[in-house]
Amino acid sequence: METRASLALGRWSLWLLLLGLVVPSASAQALSYKEAVIRALDQLNERSSEANPYCLLELDLPPKTDEDSDSLKPVSFTVKETMCPRTTQQPLEQCDLKENGLVKQCVGTVTLDQSKDQFVINSNEVSRTGSAIP
Predict the structure, then answer these.
(1) Taking CA 27 as the corner, what is the angle to CA 75 and CA 72, rounded to the nearest 5 degrees?
(2) Domains of the chain, start order
(3) Entry pTM
């Protein structure tokens, strides 16, 4: 026979389980600054009509801003053209950089809330170079 305490504990456990299913965890939805930039770069590559996608070369330090994942964060990063075709299934980090490939400096804003996927990025050609930016 169950005691009153075990019944109450069972009910609380059930409520906590249901609450966990209904209320999404903030940490599960928040992206890091770098993850948000990579996600924006992936979407830029998907929308691009260029033959080869770009890989992240350098990411400027994140701004000192509030921790609100809903607000837009300023970003600045450098990308370089890869040797992989647009249709590649391998991660871009594993693609070789294109010799004399196009290098672009990108600036804009991203959100760290992965459910929103908001970003505005403008990229301008910096140079064509055979070596990667350190």
Answers:
(1) 25
(2) 26-129 (3.10.450.10)
(3) 0.66
